[in-house]
Amino acid sequence: MGKIVHLVLFDIDGTLVESYDFDTECFQAATKDVLGVTIGPDWSRYNHVTDSGILIEVIEELGLKSDSDRITEEVRERFVSRVADHISCHGVSPIFGAYEFLSQLVARQNVAVAFATGGWSESARMKLDAAGISFSSIALASSSDHYSRTDIMRLAEKRAGNGRYDSITYFGDGPWDQKASETLGYNFVSVGSRISSPQSIRDYTEANVALRYIGL
Question: How many separate domains does the chain show?
Fold first, then answer.
């Protein structure tokens, strides 16, 4: 018998970093800067609730598909620069206990960890760094890789490196996180109070409860 290996994936905004609200505002502002339209904040109306997924639909609705590469690049640049401005003015906090919890998981021989975010990679890394929870050893898959959250999660699974896991758990805070986990057959744990799920933690000060949900 080999050792049991658990893969633990994490969303970032609202799950590891207190960034859900300002991230939404920066994304709306960047889209308005470039396209002149106000979108959201009811993200659940979009098929793919990721930065690139939402933008693809907005571009299609506006009939601008032929110009989508340029528009995407401009919106992404505006967004990343707005996030950087926000962080330099206000800073950004980790969800309570996130650093300690990640450190504990990374230190375990029988656990692999990866980040799977619907945000673009530049802004995701920026937020993790600013919140003091960047781990160079943790792989990241993002909206820069794919517009579909399930594809991002599958890619994070692959990048985590082992290939075969006895269990896969995803920590998220949005209904789309829960839905994607169900689609992929992942064990799901909700963080915070934005959604209710059978397995939930307020934050990572409830580390023992979180570990139990993972199966550790």
Answer: 2
